[in-house]
Design a protein that fits this description.
By secondary structure, the chain is α/β, with parallel strands linked by helices. It contains 14 helices and 9 strands. The N and C termini lie far apart (55 Å). It comes from Loxostege sticticalis.
């Protein structure tokens, strides 16, 4: 059996090598045909990614040199806005921006060390070279752009309707008091159920709103089962139906469930699908007739199981845009909490779970009274700036060198969502 496993492993490696070699050969052939380099020489990391077909994130992992970024992929919102504003100025002058040009403009407010780290940070934020008809220029991943646009529209509508907004999230508290988002895969299960055990770290599940810390749960376990039990047994009983719940894309907040209906589904499934979409149908119709209705509007649909749970109880769910967790007031709120725990930072080695909870909950409540409204207004202002930037950037790009939409799928092996560019430029 061991020998068979080694043979299978070798076959897999050979297949991977063959795929990479074929990709390199294909891309070199394209450059030969057009008699020019498709990727600038100075952007060597991008060239490796392009020729091998390996996404940059995978490339960084292989090199054990991951791109710059926070543990929860929530980059400084001010930095993101400055990058977008600077790119907009380039677009308005019809200049195709590169990393050197951009770095020269923003390095004072974006201290990453050097241009290589700067490029990696921007790649992690979703900014990278995009191929145009006559060259290359830096632009944001349109999937991120569109996702953020839809979130901004939704949260704006929710705010104008004056419904309650609740921010549901989790923090991992360790001896460094960084209050980071929990690492669902790599975090060890710290501590014990014994309240007198010397504290090492724990998880704080909680929900914040304008009224304060509405509910919290401290545990040494990070799992969907524990999290969902807390939500069902406590949170959903606390929050009245009709409210909006804002969450990020942490693995604790569910998995995508494919809701697509095929010819193999039962007649009952087809009827339920059509009725959910408010499409007129009848039980007297056969499966062939029902599927004909479905196929006319059947786009692949995926929803989060956790979202469905919240919606069943009458709540609207707003997911923070990818890599934009800082659009939640809780992001700055926890930065402030960390500053207000100096005593426990000095004495954390002797602190028990009970002592820490007794200290942190009053600190959260006091901090909320003092700065929550101020932080919320800062977030609202950022939302308005981002919404305006979207409109101005879309208009400016209409006059820029068009993206090479025919070769989008060949650029840096960026996934299928790039078809969105057809509607963006």
């Amino acid at each position: 059996m061991a020998q068979n496993q080694e043979i299978n492993k070798e076959l897999v490696i050979q297949a991977q090598i063959k795929t990479i070699v074929n990709t390199v050969l294909e891309n070199c052939k394209k450059e030969s045909e057009c008699n020019s380099l498709l990727i600038p020489l100075e952007d060597y990391e991008h060239r490796v990614s392009y020729y091998t077909g390996l996404p940059k994130e995978e490339l960084f992992k292989l090199l054990e040199n991951k791109p710059t970024g926070n543990s929860d992929q929530s980059y400084d919102l001010v930095q993101r806005i400055i990058i977008m504003q600077t790119l907009l100025k380039f677009y308005k002058t019809l200049k195709l921006p590169n990393f050197q040009d951009l770095y020269a403009k923003v390095k004072v407010v974006f201290p990453t060390g050097d241009i290589v780290q700067f490029r990696r940070a921007l790649t992690s934020m979703g900014f990278d070279y995009r191929k145009t008809i006559n060259g290359m220029m830096i632009a944001e991943d349109p999937k991120l752009t569109f996702e953020r646009y839809h979130y901004l529209k939704k949260i704006k509508k929710v705010r104008s309707s004056n419904v309650g907004i609740y921010y549901l999230e989790e923090r991992y508290i360790d001896k460094k008091f960084a209050f980071n988002k929990p690492d669902f895969v790599n975090d060890p299960l710290h501590g014990k159920n014994d309240a007198n055990h010397i504290w090492e770290g724990f998880y704080l599940y909680h929900v914040l709103s304008d009224s304060g810390l509405d509910h919290h749960f401290i545990t040494n376990k990070i799992s969907k089962e524990v999290h969902n039990k807390w939500v069902i047994d406590n949170l959903l009983k606390l929050i009245k139906p009709g409210c909006a719940i804002v969450i990020d894309n942490h693995p604790l907040h569910g998995e995508l469930v494919d809701d697509t209906v095929t010819q193999y589904h039962s007649k009952a499934d087809m009827l339920n699908w059509l009725r959910k979409k408010s499409i007129p149908c009848s039980e007297n119709m056969c499966k062939a007739e029902l599927y004909d209705l479905i196929s006319r509007c059947n786009k692949p649909t995926k929803t989060y199981d956790f979202d469905q749970l919240l919606k069943i109880h009458g709540h609207e769910v707003l997911r923070l845009p990818t890599r934009c967790n800082a659009l939640s007031p809780t992001h700055l709120f926890w930065v402030e909490i960390s500053k207000r725990m100096p005593f426990f930072k000095k004495n954390s080695a002797e602190c028990t779970l009970v002592e820490l909870e007794d200290a942190i909950i009053p600190t959260i409540n006091e901090t909320h009274k003092g700065i929550w409204e101020h932080i919320k207004q800062k977030v609202i202002y950022s939302e308005q700036v981002l919404e305006k930037l979207y409109t101005e950037t879309e208009e400016a790009l209409e006059y820029c060198d068009p993206f090479d939409v025919k070769n989008i799928d060949q650029h840096a092996k960026i996934p299928e969502y790039f078809y969105l560019l057809d509607g963006y430029c």
